[in-house]
Amino acid sequence: MWLALLVACGGPETDSAVLDPNDTDAVGSAFGDLSGRYALKLVYAAEVQDPGPFTDNWEGQQLTSWFLADVALDGASLGWTETLCGLSSTAVFGTETTYPPAFVLANPVRARAGTVSSDVTGASVAVGPFTDVIGAALDAPEDALPTSGDDARVTDDDADGHPGVTVIVDQSILGTGEVYVAQRAITALAGTVVSSTRLEGLVTWSREKVVYGASAGWLEAGAVERVDPAPERSFFVLQEVSPTFDCDAILAAGDALFEG
C-alpha cells in the first residue's frame, strides 16, 4: 500500500475560532497581511491497480492530510512552517491503509516557501516544488532511496524497531499487518488568494517508495499506483484559524473547517 505525508498550519488572532471563509473580499481588493495561523488540508488523488492476478482494474483513492501552519508574508514572498497533524486514506479493493501516531510524529516540522503574484484577492499563489523523504537519511533529497533495509541510510524514524516507517494495512480477506517503508514525495501547490483568510488551489505530486519488509509475506509486494489524471481531485485549502488552534482542534473540526 502507499502512504503520504501531512502538514499543519497557524494564523492571526481573531475573536472566532475559525474565520468565516464565506466573508470573502471582492476580487481585486487588497487582502492585507496573510500572516497568521492556518489549518491546511492537502489531498493527493491516485489510482491504484487491483493486486489480483486476473484483472487489470484501477480504483480511485484519496489520501487526505491535515496540517498546522504558521504563515508569513513578506512582500511577494509567502512561506510557512508546517506540522503534520494526521492523515487518512480511502479504502481501495477492500484494503485500508492507516498511519499510526508514531508515523505522524516521525515527520519533522518543515518549512515551505513560495510567492504571491500581487497584493489583491485573486492573486496567484505558487509554493514548491518541495521534496520530503521519510524512512531514509539521504545526502541529497533526489538521491535514490536505499533498496535494502540493511542499508545504513535507512532510518527507524518512528522508533518501533523496524526499518523506515510503519503503516498498517487491513485487507478484508487476508487480515491486518504492518509494512515497513521509506518514501519520497515531491509536491507543488498552485492556487489563488480567495480572501484575506483563505487560499486554495491544486496540487501536483509524485511519490515513490521502497518496502523493506512486512509482518506477512502478502504485504511485501505493495500496490501499483499512478497519479489521478483529473487534476481537480488533488487540491489544497489553507484556512486561517484562531492563534490558539492546535492539531487536536484541527482534527476535531474535520472537513467543516475547510468548507467554503
Question: What would your notes on this structure say?
Answer:
The chain has 260 residues and is mainly beta. It has one domain (36-254). 5% of the residues lie in helices and 46% in strands. It has 2 helices and 11 strands. The protein is globular and about 60 Å long. The relative contact order is 0.25.
Task: Quickly describe the structure.
This protein is mainly beta. 5% of the residues lie in helices and 46% in strands.
Strand order of the biggest β-sheet: 1-2-3-5-6-8-9-11
What proportion strand?
Answer: over 45%
Q: By helix and strand content, what is the structural category?
A: mainly beta
What is the arithmetic mean of pLDDT? 89
Terminal-residue CA separation: 32 Å
Which stretches of 5+ consecutive residues score pLDDT under 50?
A: 1-24
